[in-house]
Amino acid sequence: MAVSEEDVRHVAALARLGLGDDRVQSLVGELNGILGHMEVLQQVDVGGASLDPDATHGMRMREDVPNPIVLHRAREEFAPSMRDGFFLVPRLSTHGSTDSADDEGEG
Amino acid sequence: MTAPSLLARSAAEVASDIAAGRLAPHAALDASLAAMDRVDAGPGGLNAVLCSDVVGARAELAALSLTPQLLLSGIPIAVKDNIATLTMPTTCGSRILAGYVSPFEATVIARMRAAGAVIPMKTNMDEFAMGSSTENSAYGPTRHPMDHTRVPGGSSGGSAAVVAAGVTRIALGSETGGSVRQPAAFCGIVGVKPTYGRVSRHGLVAFASSLDQVGVFGTTVDDAALGMQVIAGVDPLDSTTVDVPVADYRAARDVAGAQPLSGVVVGRPVEYFPESLDPRMRALLDRAADHLRALGAEIRDVSLPHTSLAIPVYYIVAPAEASSNLARFDGVRYGVRVEGDGLRGMYEATRSQGFGAEVTRRILLGTYVLSAGYYDAYYKRAMAVRRLIADDFSKVFSSGVHVLLTPTTPTTAFVAGSRSDPYEMYMSDIFTATANLAGVPAMSQPIGRMDGLPVGGQLLASHFDEATMFRVAYALERALGAEAHT
Predict the structure, then answer these.
(1) Cis status of the peptide bond prior to B155, with omega within 30 of 0
(2) Helix (H) or strand (E) holding B268
(3) Is the pTM value of this prediction over 0.80?
(4) Which residues of chain A neighbour B337 with C-beta distances below 8 Å?
């Protein structure tokens, strides 16, 4: 299950990480080196051990309602960009820009 | 009373004197701040403190009504920089959170403050707690207090260093695979990871949610037990906390008598004493076991047969969870934004420039093992083996063993920059990651030295039985006396 350059570019895209070509090449070696040590797990007799992670085992469940947390400062103080109570993001590239002077929001 | 002698006394004693008016309310804080100024800043400093809030700490102290009921009256606590505080930034040692000040505070901070403590400083760490040396901080590495060419361990290396250097008696860290116990061992202090679910993570920036716990450093067992006493307990803001009564962790601090551990069975798992273990470290563990035997404990060899699989399992499970948890750092709601080409370009620019090399590597590793075609082979497989590791502990503890004694780390503090291979660095956690995977409580305490560097002995107990773990730790600390640091 060797990791290829294509694999690294694929997972980097999934993880929204921009990587230069040099970094991609070095990561191929690093990830293959790490994953090589994981191969030992394939030899383990897992017998009756559950293969399905059980997210609810032993968990205390609560009502599915918001648990409001008091904020001691306004979002505007820590958000990179806000307007009228909304977080602003750049336009989606597929939507193009209708206003070159203001390319944030309403995307 | 001069500052150095104040820092040489236990946090409980100083808190008691402050509450009773025998010491000024600001006495411990002043001593701590003076020590911080002496050891931390500048080219020759430790670089253990990322931010301090002297004015805020003094103001908070002035407003406190200190009473004997408050366990930490006037005691300064250093806090790892991935635990949310209101008056100082919470950067997680990352560029992506540079300058970020949380709008809410962690439950553990609220509990410390409610017990009379003040929080004057945030400490350095491996970025997002990913590392074993505190070399991966965007704000520079932290140095080992006893030898500046060496690492203090990690990822909570800043908190370990300030306690080892005598800046505070108690500090908070976080554990995902050993990030409190390993630096505690390297720095010659006590470090405790509680049972999963024992301490609230509300306000702890998530790394791997099925593993993360807030931990406590102490100069001594009693300092660490006192800190844990304050922060333990169920929290409605963290659904993973469990409503199990919190015992008196300090109950054994004054237990005297020739056989205080009579009836306690201490297991020695053979897998933690491999042929490759340095014979001097083995001898220190043997000495510790001899002390425990003399105190009345039965020493029994046991087996945890899946121990060697812990690192492969850990480095699948933890990066997988991290790849999900760190998706929130995208330049939209908080933290640093780096503009790029459109929305996707902004995401990629922000994350690639905001995260360091190790965090990037683990996000990619985690994304890979969760991706279509590899999920079954890696993640699902790792979760099944994790169950086997947890079952190993259950079998040993159900066989009548109360605590386990092991080395905390395979080596003493290593030279900074000497571990460039990621997997070699990951192996630093080989004796600690098992407790996180199984969810059991564990702690490290100093048991001696090799080449002048501290060696940690690890105690592990069954779920929610921190009290027995502390009982054995108190007795061992008392029996070792000065041997623990020689």
Answers:
(1) yes
(2) strand B265-269
(3) yes
(4) 80-81
Contacts of A102 in chain B (CB under 8 A): none
Q: Which of B179, B428, B444, B462 is catalytic?
A: B179
Side-chain-side CA neighbours of residue B356 (13 Å)? 22
Q: Are B184 and B217 contacting, i.e. CB atoms less than 8 angstroms apart?
A: yes
ipTM of predicted complex: 0.91
Looking at the complex, does the CB of residue A81 fall below 8 Å from at least one CB of chain B? Answer: yes
DSSP alpha helix (H) spans, B103-145 = 107-114
Find residue B76's DSSP bridge partners.
Answer: B118
In this structure, the number of other CB atoms found within 10 A of the CB of residue B387 comes to 22
Residue with tokens 């701040």, as numbered in its chain: B33
The beta-carbon neighbor of B103 closest among A30, A35, A73 is A73
Mutate to test the interface with B, among A38, A43, A94 (most CBs of B within 10 A): A38
SS3 state at B181: helix
Chain B residues in contact with A8 by the CB 8 A cut-off are 364
Q: Active-site residue B179, yes or no?
A: yes
CB atoms within 10 A of CB B246: 18
CB contact under 8 A, B374 and A42: no
pLDDT, tens digit, for every residue of B433-484?
A: 999 999 999 999 999 999 999 999 999 999 999 999 999 999 999 999 999 9
pLDDT digits (tens, 9 = 90+) for B110-137: 999 999 999 999 999 999 999 999 999 9
Tell me the torsion sign for CA atoms B218, B222, B223, B229: positive
Identity of residue A19: L
